[in-house]
Hints:
alpha+beta; about 575 residues; five-stranded antiparallel β-sheet; CATH 2.40.50.140
Amino acid sequence: MNQTQTAAADEGMDSFAALFEQSIAEGDFGNEGEIVVGTIVAVNRDTVVVDIGGKSEGAIPLKEFIDATGTVTVKAGDTVDVYIESRENDDGLVTLSKEKADKMKVWDEISNACEADELIEGTISQRVKGGLSVTIKGGVKAFLPGSQVDLRPIRNLDKLIGQTYRFKVIKFNKKRGNIVLSRRVLLERERDEMKQKTLQTLTEGMTVKGTIKNITEYGAFVDLGGIDGLLHITDMSWGRVNHPNEVFQVGDEVTVKVLKYNPETERVSLGLKQTQEDPWNHAEEAYPAGKKVRGKVMSITDYGAFVELEPGVEGLIHVSEMSWTKKVKHPSKLLELTQEVECQVLEVDARAKRISLGLKQLEPDPWMVFTDKYNPGDKIAGKVRSITDYGVFVGIEEGVDGMVHRSDLSWSVRANNPSDLYKKGDDVEAIILSINHDEKKVSLGIKQLWDDPWPSMHTEFPMGRVFDDALIISVVDYGLFVRLREGVEGFIAKEELDEEGQKAKAGDTIRAEMMSLDTSERRVFLTSKNIGAERPAPAPRKVQEESAKPAGTLGDLIKEKLGGKLELK
Length: 569
């Protein structure tokens, strides 16, 4: 090589060196704050050495190359994107970061997605003030306001933690590292699309599926796909529903029927029970009269209790059908709400949707028991249950009473009030005079236990006869009633009582003398004064005149009670 060539070569080398030094000075391998591609030179114990060109190398902490399982993800010779934090230091190394490079690339991707109106995916990681924190690509944190979580406010945001969704970026600031997301915008867009699709196919009478969106006291709103329909409480079940939350919870899926649809107002009325057969269609076959059934007491009123036999079918137990023997003042005295009861079907009217039920019919009818056991003329024994102005009621069997008219209490005493002779609870015997099956009434007679004494009264009870131990059966303001023998009673007026008689009480005995007989009124009068003394024949007298005329003869009485026949047994 001659001197000229040598000089030219040296000049070329100097020019290359100058250009190389200029490229380094100008940062051809990258400037601070830029991302460049480097080659991994070595993987050491704590660092990874990366060559970024231009005879520049940098050490990156090994931890930036370790995955979640603790495994190193690179080896010598691999290429990797790194971020230049600073130029060469005193050791001749460049400060690099893989993590920052990853984050910057993510920010660029997010920025591009935001500009292109694209959706990004993220996982809700934690709850923060005002909303939720969402982790997106590369571990970047974004903010999801509470108002942008769903179409409706969600009370419990914690239940969303860990859930992965797609979001729309509604605010982005790379310098401040601020990203705001919205899920609501996406849901609104989907809802509008679904709504248009639903409206195109929605018609009255069709069956559709939906999701319970909201519950009120009067019904539930069902999301049919972008449009809500009202399922009224009365259309939820053929049975009784007190509140919609007894049937549904928010989020439940339901199959309903479109009852009404107004395209102009976009109002939809739905029915659930209409998807099922009306149970009243088979009520007459399922609940024939006479069948014993079980049900639950659903409501109680003054006049009876409603019993649910199956959802949608209720029957009424009227208060009069609850007991044969008790006078039920109010159904709540016998039944309680939700109580399971057994009863009998009395009548069914499917058209009117009414079923009459009976509770007492499960027990024998006391009247039937009585009529099978007794006939007119039979002798009965019982206690006085009650006393009225016109007679005495005597209990014959459980649930069956008979009445003794005051004219049938005694052959020889015509009392103004039956209570003068009897008290409630007294044990008495009587003869059945008649049985009225239509009105379920029984007429009794006490005096019919004995023969009519009046044909022989003057002979058996002559004037002046003295009774040493006449039994006082009743004490009244105006005198005493006494029993002379079984079937014959007499009266001692107050003015005819001696001093001892004035102090007497029921159950005592008294010494008395026959004073007079009133054959027309069939009454016997006695005195306890001056017994044995001669006295003029007394004038006829009465025991406090009655407002009504006296009863007829014995024959008339018997004919009235027994239709002319009386058989004593």
